[in-house]
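Sample entry (145 residues):
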Amino acid sequence: MVTLTQRDSRWGHKPIGKTKVLIKDKGCLITDISMLSDWYGTYKDPSWMAKYLNFTDQALLLWQSITTSQLPFKFVWRFYNYDEKMIVNALKGKTTSCVLQVHGNHWVVGIRKVLNYYWVSDPWDGKRKMIHKSIISGGATFDKK
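Predicted structure, serialized as tokens:
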């Protein structure tokens, strides 16, 4: 899976949906979805996500727009607290994946669980790192269409 940053000059200045919110400022989730598109075999960059997915007036993603898009995966479930079983099942599946909400307002791609930590790909700085499970405040899961 490619590792991306929302602050990349190729797309950071693009607006999310029809809002004035820029990918570089609040595009962590769509950058995660872009990374997952590579993992699922049909890469689309964050500017594609910003243009073809659907968002609220505040630039929040409408989850079902992933399923109805040309992406090769679908939205399955959104959870609003730490759910280890949900996360681990998504990470272990051959066709499943997940994004994790951390500190309440930032999103990272989950890669694997290691004891009380998770390897993630962080779109803020475009790096892979370990995070402690205590900072996870929710997430979403996906599966191949």
